[in-house]
Amino acid sequence: MELTRRGRVGRALYGILFAVVIPLLLVGWVWRTADVIRLAPLHAPWTGAALVVAGAALMLAGMHALLVHGGGLPMNPFPPPRYVSRGVYRCLGHPIYTGFAVAVAGASIAAGSGSGLWLVTPLVAAGCAALVLGYEQHDLRRRFGGELRRPLLSLPPPTEATPAAWSRASAYVLVLLPWLLVYEAAVLAGMPAGAIEAYFAFERSWPVLPWTEPIYASAYVVVCLAPLVAAKCRELRRFCVSGLLATALNGLLFFTLPLVAPPRAFVPQGFWGTLLDLERRMEGPSGAAAFPAFHVTWSFIAAAVFASRFHRFRGLFHLWGALVAGSCIGTGMHAVADVLAGFCVFLLVHRIDRIWQGLRAAAEAVANSWREWRVGRVRIIHHGAYGAGGAFTGVAMAGALMGAEHVGELLAVAAASLVAAAFWAQLVEGASVSLRPFGYYGSVIGAALAGAAVGLLGGSGWLVLAALSVAAPWVQALGRLRCLVQGCCHGREAPSGIGIRFQHPRSRVVRLSSLGGAPIHPTQLYSILWNAVCGAALLRLWCVEPPLPFVAGSYLILAGLGRFVEESYRGEPQTPRIAGLPIYQWNAVASVVLGAVLTCLRGGSGIPEPRFDLGLLAAATAFALLTGVAMGVDFPDSNRRFARLVK
User: Fold this and answer.
1) 434 or 384: which carries more pLDDT confidence?
2) Integer Cα distance of 615 and 299 in angstroms
3) 365, 461 Cβ separation under 8 angstroms
4) How far apart are CA 520 and CA 509, in angstroms?
5) In which band, very low, low, confident or very high, does the pLDDT at 2 lie, cut at 50, 70 and 90?
6) Cβ of 375: how many Cβ atoms within 10 Å?
7) Helix (H, G, I), strand (E, B) or coil at 383
8) How confident is the model at residue 575 (pLDDT cuts 50, 70, 90)?
9) In 152, 540, 575, 646, which residue has its Cα 20 to 30 A from 50's Cα atom?
10) How far, in Å, CA of 440 to CA of 477, rounded?
11) How many helices (H) and strands (E) does the chain have?
């Protein structure tokens, strides 16, 4: 009876949290950030209301299906006992999360809230995606295994079968629609702050050729036909994956690089001139979504589908893609740089399998590259160079953003971060007192406390923390190379085409787990890639000069979302677990929540002009040497506290 009562209380509290508390907190987040950072609103009450209704309907349909067919409610700690693939789940894999994100977007549009649309909605969607990728998909596989079914709206499998109608429809809903939303969002955002025209000087005088408009416009038709033309599921899946990757990469570049290409002026004459002028009016005069040229990327992606279906004419389809690229210049809609960037994006997404295998091979090579040298009782391990590189990058970048006059405060906070990282690892990982590991969350806590102390003493605490937040993703990306060599933060078993093998006897994978020689998820590589995305976003955020706490909060949110997903692929046996989750996932949740709180603060001084001098170079070099010694030099024969990095 006691267990039943406890279960009911737990379910009630969980329901209140997600049905009442979180929505109210999101409303408060929108309200508090409305005056903190100015974001252009989109006010369309009826459209917003329709989206709210559609989102709510999806959520209710999902809850009804779970209750009727699954025998439970959508509660992760108390999941339905039966797998559900009927009702709305027959069509859509995650209707409740999808509906919630749509409803939040609709409410933001209905209320005309810029912060709701551009800040809260994307982060709510990202949070839902992180929960699915970092917890739910693993939990479903563990509990139901072979019962899992592919919903109708999903990417097709990589088979030689003919795509079903739903697979083709999925390409429009799951690939082309997200692309349209990202592109229109970039157009709606308008001219970015500090915009730079992508035109070379010699391009500005080039004439506009209206007769190239039909070639330019043909991209819309051909791309929309591509899902219908694909003859095999494998080809359709490649189109979908390439399109999703292109959407992600182009979207990232749209919002992080302030490159624009306002359409070149011309006098519309004749039918094609009038049509071109109409298209220009629809896309707006700013040219904010011009770099990279989506026409080029999508045209070559679609041309690959047509070339696979009609082998004899493959040369003509590639020629068509080249003509579309030329029409981007002829219509005056894009700069040469836009076209080149669009083609580079196509090459990247089209060859993503080869690129991934190259990255995986490089990660495996680093993972087995351990080198050490003995000088008397001292051991020098080469992976300390990666820690030193990260330290140099952090101090140099943050110092340049802050100005060299703050270098003393910066070094104090950086040193506190390094010391706290060592103590955190001792407390959480329970390492032998003679070992000297380092923990990421310890470094964050140490930096936060030291930054607060700097502020209380009259210094520029928020400035230091914000600048370090911008530099932190690049520091962590370099630090993950050290993790690869050490074998810390390693993944669990993975398919051979994804995993990497640790074989060096000094690696923690070999010494502390049973995974030596087995393919495991390259979680360090996952982290490096995500940190590159975060780093680009935060650099752009710094350039628009938001409040300093907003910068620090944004870093904590982005880092927490990535860490939550990454941790779900880890396989370290010594990681403590609380309520079924690794402690680092709870830390990631706390990071997101704290980051959201910081984005609501209005404190902090302005952002100075970046400056770099020889004094800052010397300070960065000195701190890099200190970090390199701390992370790469030890005394292997000693049992003193913190004497050894590895047994």
Assistant:
1) 384
2) 50
3) no
4) 10
5) very low
6) 8
7) coil
8) confident
9) 152
10) 12
11) 25, 9
